[in-house]
Amino acid sequence: MAAVPTSHQVAAGTPWSSLPRGGFRAFTDSAPASVRFSVGRRRASRLEVKAAGNIFGDYFQVATYGESHGGGVGCVISGCPPRIPLTEEDMQADLDRRRPGQSRITTPRKETDTCKILSGTFEGMTTGTPIHVFVPNTDQRGGDYTEMAKAYRPSHADLTYDLKYGVRSVQGGGRSSARETIGRVAAGALAKKILKLKSGVEILAFVSKVHKVVLPEDAVDYETVTMEQIESNICRCPNPEYAQKMIDAIDEVRLKGNSIGGVVTCIARNVPRGLGSPVFDKLEALLAKAMLSLPASKGFEIGSGFAGTDLTGSEHNDEFYMDEGGNVRTRTNRSGGVQGGISNGETIYFKVAFKPTATIGKKQNTVSRDHEDIELMTRGRHDPCVVPRAVPMVETMAALVLMDQLMAHVAQCEMFPLNLALQEPIGSANNTPALAPDLA
């Protein structure tokens, strides 16, 4: 057997093919310890294809499933703290605010959207294990979508689903239907409950614009507006005068088979300081992603938003002061409760713009799946304006973001003693409600 050459016996530039049997491994094994390294046959990497886009959150995770005309829709919630009181009734209230057929200005589809918790609770308490929530579909009309199997509805997801997957669920828009948000709303109801218990957080959304009817900025006090005011009319605008104008605008286009868009404003009060993680997980960035994941959403702004570009720095800056309780506060809140991507304790407020419903009862020009120019007259039951039913959806996504960031903050920043000269523990605010004995 030929001797294996040592490192000083191999001339520079010697091709690997000229090495004796044992090759490069034998060469490295014989090298001085100071330069020796291990080389072996690299195993082929395991190819994994992960379903993308159906899970939201890192700590409080929500996976939604289901389609408009399938057997049902729902969600699986992972990461929920144990020992939180939870029943179907806790989720049903928000699901009822989201469901179709609740008034003449929403889709006439009749669904009770009655939820059932299938796992993750015992004797009315969360167990810390995954919570499965299911809502059956009961009022499907698949025949309404015969034309959609052959043609692409303008500004809908029909074309892009075909382009991406090469196949799509035709009836009701499938996964792109707003019925997907049922799972979100169920999970959001739980998130809102935990946020309220832990830190006194209150999240409210309302309609602030329908088509050209705009609620004046000074018509609503973000610090005092209540759920009762918002829910006092079918449009979910807390100002009765403007609510009626909005309802009239929706009625007008509804009778013509057309649709209009609008804006939902959301506020979050008593949000703990310190939520959000720069640089890519800034709180406003996470809120923007969450809101723009909602069906028909087209725009997002927080605080002064685009109007802030009209101001100078001296006009826009929120000056600090010490309040009577010894807390650092801001005299104004053009930042919208977030500075540097982190919540500062002031009320968070933002707006979400929604486009007119894409499916309308008017003949439109489009293209068939066979790539022919055609005219399409769509059928089906759809909202003439999505914003009244979008209100609980916006609240939901805000709650899911804040819940996930609350858990992230506690995990990172409260693992060891705080710097009490600068920080305060989550749940220590004076306005935080007392916890139930089994949660304290």
From TrEMBL:
Its EC number is 4.2.3.5. InterPro entries: Chorismate_synth, Chorismate_synth_AroC_sf, Chorismate_synthase_CS. GO terms for biological process: amino acid biosynthetic process; aromatic amino acid family biosynthetic process; chorismate biosynthetic process. It is an enzyme of class 4 (lyase). It holds the Pfam family Chorismate_synt. Its cofactor is FMNH2. Keywords: Amino-acid biosynthesis, Aromatic amino acid biosynthesis, Lyase. GO terms for cellular component: cytosol. Pathway: Metabolic intermediate biosynthesis; chorismate biosynthesis; chorismate from D-erythrose 4-phosphate and phosphoenolpyruvate: step 7/7. The keyword Lyase applies. It catalyses: 5-O-(1-carboxyvinyl)-3-phosphoshikimate = chorismate + phosphate. Transmembrane segments: none annotated. One of its GO terms (molecular function) is chorismate synthase activity. Reduced FMN (FMNH(2)). The keyword Amino-acid biosynthesis applies. Catalyzes the last common step of the biosynthesis of aromatic amino acids, produced via the shikimic acid pathway. NCBIfam families: aroC (TIGR00033), PRK05382.1 (NF003793). This is Chorismate synthase. It comes from Brachypodium distachyon. The lineage of its organism: Eukaryota, Viridiplantae, Streptophyta, Embryophyta, Tracheophyta.
